[in-house]
Write the structure tokens for this entry.
Amino acid sequence: MKILRDLFRDFRFLLSFCVLLLLLMMALLSFFTPYDPTLIGVVPRDLKPSSTYLLGTDTNGQDIFWQACNAVRNSLIISLIAGLVSRVIAILVGMVAGYKGGWVDRVLMFFGDALLVIPIFLIMVMMAMLVREFMNLVVLGLMLSFFGWAWDARVIRSLILSLREREFTNTAVLSGTGTIRLVWNEYMPYATPLVFSTLINNMSWAIGLEITLAILGLVNMNIPTLGTMLNWAINYQAILLGHWWWILTPVVLSVLLFIALYWLSVSISEYLDPRTRIQRVGA
Amino acid sequence: MEQIILRTEKLKTFYLLDMQGSQKVVKAVNEVDLTIYENEIYGIAGESGCGKTTLLKALFNAIDPPLRLVGGKIFYVINGTEVDVTSINPEEKRKLRMEYISYIPQGSMSVLNPVLKLKETYRDFIGSHVRGQSREATFELAQKHILELGLPKNILEAYPHQLSGGMRQRVTIALAALLKPRIMIGDEPTTALDVVVQRGVIQLLKEIQKKLKNTIIMVTHDMGVHANVANRIAIMYAGKIVEEAPTQQIFDHPEHPYTQFLINSLPKFGDKNVRGSVPGSPPSLADLPDGCPFHPRCPHTREICKQSMPGFTRTDTHHKVACWLFGEGENGKAA
Amino acid sequence: MEKLLEVDQLTKEYSMGSLIAKTRITAVDHISFFMKPAEIFTLAGESGCGKTTTAKVVLGFEEATSGAITHNGKLQSKKEKVWITEGVQAIFQDPFSTFNPLRTVDRYFIETVENYKLAGNKKEAIEVIDLKLKAVGISYREFSGKYPNEFSGGQLQRISIARALLTDPKLLIADEPVSMVDASLRMSIVNLFKKLRDDFGVSVLYITHDLATAYYVSDRIAIMFRGNIVEMGSVEQVLMNPRHPYTRLLRDSIPQADPQKRWTDTVTLSELEHDEYLRQGCKFAGRCPLVMEMCKTQIPADITVDDVLVRCHKYNETEAAQRR
């Protein structure tokens, strides 16, 4: 597609695309994992990376390579759920608040501001402790999304506020377009780059938060994610014991993931920026 | 005979754009020769998209990427000697600005800092060009200048938003004239203004020119403004100058077909006869036709017009036109 | 004859400032005018005179503080969507803002056709659109699938008029339609208004500060100054023989495209617009060359002189003298 070809000219997009492709392949590979990731003692413990065990094994008796594949997949799923759900909420709230104004705007922004001001971490810790038993990927994702929409809702709201004053809103009104269709057709093209870049940023944030919670032991330790792998490695003193393969794997994967997501969001949002898009349109 | 103050020689400045891999060349100023004298008001008339803003940027020596100098030279005459300003360093460039040549923008609000009182803005300008002056001295300088131009005394104590649009524009023009520059360049200085305010602004410009005896180069598409203010007018089309003559001659004997169209399409107040406008639309500067850029819209097009651009033909002592109807022109095939 | 539009003592006030210190600005101050079918009526004046506000209120985008607006005999209710109920359409000043730069221009046409049920299927819709485009001199081929920045200002403004014509409105409100278009292209747009009046019977409420095009195209004109109509009548009478000092100032300040007709005398400009709004008495008293003492304290009444409505103490005096 022409769009992809244009994007590939940006080396940041190219690199991040490749890294993400790699990670995606790892995630897909996880469906063929020979060992059940939730069990322990499946393979000999603490073995260095070799030809049989590509990334070695950990103290739990799990193959680190396959653990990593599962971890990447699960982390991506959590962050995707968190990111997508929070985008949807942010768009709905932002557009309604921006276009309607008045008391609807005030009420919605009140809730948003509350979520921004309250220290998330404490609440997350409390919520995590409460739902520990039912904790799975989806629950964690939804929890994270609950806190992720407030900032972007405000940003989208200010975008809508300024677009509402533009002349083309009047043209659309005179064309007989109803409010919902108007907001969707006229304003969404402006909101898309915003939503996209914040989606990816939000995913980064979600992964980071998940890792933090996991290291503190607040999530279900049986489900392999990048965070839980780190937690196990730390708890079993992997650094002190010199089991570098166990601690490095989640760290390197996380760093790669963060950088790739960052570059992806920057290059795509530059591409989608209305100002550069307007230059390109009709060129 | 007045001296030359600014000269361009086959000036070519293009925008070289590279957007996500595809390249575009916008030929905004396409071989322009201008000779501008001291103590005159020189008007450049042209529609949107003819390259006039770019020409002004080039004359002001503000050629920054993506705008590039592709060919030709620009000369300022400073203290009697011709200086090629395309090759001077940034510090020299900065010194020339405001002292030798200054710029009047179209929108005054974009120049005046909204959170500073006007006197602060004036002080900043003076301070960056005249060293070693105390605060009081700079303020007095500014105050004197304002009064000389007939603007109210206490205007410097106000914030920009407290003034009306016309007053702001006049203050901005006064600012541009503060350091008594030899050349003042105006890019559509009256376009966004109401008609009475426009008259006041034009009044001020003429006052300044009379006092300083300097040169004002003004670009606008409004021929009425040119008629009231300019000594000589140049008509610009698609990056080229197509006709140049003293004001009276341009209106009495417009020679280039485009000039004729321009003048005939203006509403004459008091005349209800149906007037036509220029048919078609100007070419995109990124995609110019071969030969004379006006040929697709010209009623007198001939074969040669489609192939090459004519040079300037002198039809009178001060009147020159670039059109095949008048011949090949002095400089051969290129104008 | 049924009046297409009648505006009666329309007032619109805005309050500015915080809870503690509020000022009320009267943008439109008890103005009255009417429009007939198939005529071009101009509201002329400089920026800040209230003409755009009047247009917004007539269109239903803003609510009047007081006064009545009637379309074809029917009273307009608060913020009534007159483009749906009465078929009033509008075009605006900046053609490039009129359309969303990220959408193709034809989308608005298709939406209008769908929303107002002007056609049964896609083929009919294209026919309807093509008809209106032809009326403004644009071909469907050069229009379809293009973004706003692919057109010139003049073309885009004509496309904007075509869109407004889709619903066959009887009243078209044109808010400064040519001020952002090059002087040489203005004629083509303004000629269109004449065509609409003569061939389609559309009335145009032409709002502008450009008296030259106003003279060229309108039938009747009202001059507004800081919220008041100071002179109103046929365009011949008002512009060829202006009675109000402000109208004279406006007319004399038009730059003529003739070097022989340069301005000879100087003009004084207002310093602070805000002050002029808050004047008691006649708002032009600060700059009027014929100002008298009573102008500063008393608002002049509307009197008719030779079929022209003028709001000026000078004429009050003369009329009073004649009556004696």
Summary: Residues 74 and 225 of chain A are 6 Å apart (CA to CA).
